């Protein structure tokens, strides 16, 4: 049976993208459809002008939200939502806000080399940043993450040191905007679009409907 594609539009700096990814996986299990769906990753940079590799998080978030105290309130809300789906957000460890272009290029590399490991990379990058507080704008950090899921360090480093994947990432981001994506996470399953942090049961209903449409074609 041909897998049904789920197009996931995301950014590695978006905590709700990680929470949504966890809910999506739970929704697939609830629907009893493991193996029926295949994730396709579409990049979307929330901060494309962020200095490379990263900026001081406290200064950036204080400017964005008006105060560091307001930022901490929002972080606490995210951490609570993450805990409900089994994810650990350790914001006290996060010192920088990264430019995510390099991480998206790494995803392009993984998709080209072994697309079956894209889900592993997604989770590994998110955990590195939100749980361990690592700078995912750093080439060295991204190489280590790729190695942790089975890729060769030299090959990854050579790819990221050049400009490979840059054109593809930019083209996919433009396509997302053309398709009407205005926020992340956004999920597209057949003709259905899911946005924001939906619970597993919502994903399960949409996935079951999409599978039914395919079977009736």
Describe the secondary-structure layout.
Blueprint lengths: L3 E7 L4 H16 L6 E7 L10 E3 H9 L2 H17 L11 E3 L2 H14 L3 H14 L7 H10 L4 H9 L4 H13 L7 E4 L2 E4 L4 H16 L2
Parallel strand pairs: 1-2
Antiparallel strand pairs: 1-5, 3-4, 5-6
Organism: Cupriavidus metallidurans (strain ATCC 43123 / DSM 2839 / NBRC 102507 / CH34)
Pfam family, one: DSBA
InterPro entries: DSBA-like_thioredoxin_dom (IPR001853), Thioredoxin-like_sf (IPR036249)
**How would you write the strand order of the largest sheet?**
2-1-5-6
Label the structural class.
alpha+beta
CATH A-level architecture: 3-Layer(aba) Sandwich
Q: Can you summarize the main beta sheet?
A: 4 strands, mixed
Assembly form of the protein: single chain
Task: Compute the average pLDDT.
Answer: 94
CATH C-level class: Alpha Beta
Say what the CATH topology is.
Glutaredoxin
Helix/strand order, N-terminal first: EHEEHHEHHHHHEEH
- Low-confidence segments, given as residue ranges, are none
CATH superfamily: Glutaredoxin
- The CA-CA distance between the termini, in Å, is 14 Å
* Portion in strands: 5-15%
Radius of gyration: 17 Å
GO molecular function: oxidoreductase activity
Protein name: DSBA oxidoreductase
Pfam families: DSBA
InterPro entries: DSBA-like_thioredoxin_dom, Thioredoxin-like_sf
């Amino acid at each position: 049976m041909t897998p049904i594609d789920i197009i996931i539009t995301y950014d590695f700096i978006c905590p709700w993208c990680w929470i949504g990814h966890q809910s999506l996986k739970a929704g697939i299990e609830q629907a009893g459809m493991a193996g029926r769906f295949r994730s396709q990753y579409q990049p979307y940079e929330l901060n494309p002008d962020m200095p490379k590799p990263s900026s001081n998080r406290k200064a950036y978030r204080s400017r964005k939200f008006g105060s560091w105290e307001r930022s901490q309130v929002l972080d606490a809300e995210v951490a609570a939502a993450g805990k409900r789906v089994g994810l650990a957000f350790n914001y006290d460890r996060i010192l920088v806000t990264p430019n995510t272009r390099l991480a998206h290029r790494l995803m392009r590399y993984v998709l080209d080399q072994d697309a079956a490991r894209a889900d592993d990379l997604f989770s590994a990058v998110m955990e590195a940043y939100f749980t361990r507080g690592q700078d995912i704008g750093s080439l060295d950090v991204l190489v280590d993450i790729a190695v942790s899921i089975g890729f060769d360090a030299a090959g990854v480093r050579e790819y990221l040191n050049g400009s490979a994947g840059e054109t593809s990432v930019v083209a996919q981001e433009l396509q997302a905007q053309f398709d009407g994506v205005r926020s992340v996470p956004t999920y597209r399953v057949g003709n259905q679009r899911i946005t924001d942090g939906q619970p597993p049961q919502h994903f399960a209903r949409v996935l079951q409907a999409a599978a039914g449409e395919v079977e009736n074609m």
